[in-house]
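Repro:
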Amino acid sequence: MSHSRHPERGPAPALEALIPELRRLTRRLVRDPAGAEDLAQEALLRVWSRMASGDGIEELKPYLMTAARNLARRMRPPPVALTEAPEPSAPPEAPRRLALREVAAALSRLPQAELRLILRHATAGESYAEIAAAEALPIGTVMSRLARGRARLRADCGLPKRGPAAAALLPGEDAA
């Protein structure tokens, strides 16, 4: 006998026995634990109401699971038009790549003497004294060539005269 034909007994025991399996299904359908619990409760409520109203449900388990799947399908948000889509959570790579190309082009236009010193200082991390010793130059010459090279790079890249260059090239990033 179907539970819906005898409402005096009620559908509670049969539905209660299916709750663990229903919860497993809703967790697979909705990856959010709270959302999965809401979905399970909504499916139980709909099936309970149908059974209490006297509508016959021949096989309770498949009916309940199908109800949960149908509800999950209806709960999914509609696709968003690209014009209404939220901004990406990660910044796009294009501005960074363009900035790096601009710097590389500006470096290629520097005089070789300035370029060599800037690269030693920026990439190798050598101090003014280390560069002066390696290049057999007075430390003052190293300092002035580095200053002239930096000034040319700033002007060529359209950067402000003061402040970290990385902050101007890549806004929103911490300059090291």
